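Retro notes, structure queue

What went well: the backlog is down to a handful. What didn't: a couple of records were mislabeled last round, so from now on we paste the full input next to the output in the thread. Example, using Mitochondrial inner membrane protein Mpv17 from Nothoprocta ornata:
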Amino acid sequence: RALPAGALMGAGDAAAQQLVERRGLRGHEGARTARMAAIGACFVGPVLGTWYRLLDRLVPGATKAAALKKMLLDQGGFAPCFLGCFLGVAGAANGLSLQETCSKLRQDYVDALLTNYCV
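Corresponding output:
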C-alpha cells in the first residue's frame, strides 16, 4: 500500500504542477514531486492502510448500514485527525519551522477539511 500511495501522490503533484499551475517541464519542481511521493509512501499509505484494516474489523460486513457506519467513523473521527497530521508532515517535509507549520495549519485546516467533505 505504501508504494502505490507514493506513486499516486507523486503523479498527483506532477499533474498539479503541469495541468493546474502550468509550470511546463522547465519549471517543474522535481524535488517537490519527490517529497509528495515520499509523504505518500512513508506516511499516507501506511496510515490509511492501517486505518482501513482497523475500520473493517470495527465495523464488519458489507451492508448499507455498515458502509454508513464506516463512513461516519472515517469522516467524523479519522479524517479531521489525519488531515491535521498530514498538514504537519507536509509542512515539515517542505522545510517549514514548527511555528510556520502551526501557522499554516491554523490558516489552511478548516478549508482543507471542508474541501475533504465536499469531495
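Agreed that this is the format going forward. Reviewer comment attached to the example: Residues 64-93 form the longest helix (30 residues).
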